[in-house]
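Ticket #4471: structure export looks truncated?
Reporter: QA, pipeline team
Priority: medium

Steps to reproduce: submit the single chain below to the structure queue and open the exported record.
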Amino acid sequence: MSLEPLRTVQARLEAAGFVADLVAFEGLLHIAGTETSYSPDQVRVVETARFEGTSDPDEEAILMAVATVDGEPIGLYVTPYGPEMSPEDVTVVQQLRDI
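Actual output as written to the record:
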């Protein structure tokens, strides 16, 4: 669990070059608003942080800083964590964990 607030972690990672917003769709990570996508085996997770909601500890989120396998920063992938996670996100998160 991260001791830093979500916004603070996002700002720190964006300053380090992780500027794209990533979304899971059809087993891939897509850069929002573009045609660019990556399969989980084309990327690596550089940093992961989990967060709980301040008013509801069951509201959990996970943030991943994602880079190419060569280490070039791509962007941030943020999703609910736990039972609120969508099937698309479950697929991608499981594949990222298996790499």
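Status: closed, not a bug. The export was complete when the record was re-opened. Leaving a note from the reviewer for reference: Residues 6-98 form one domain.
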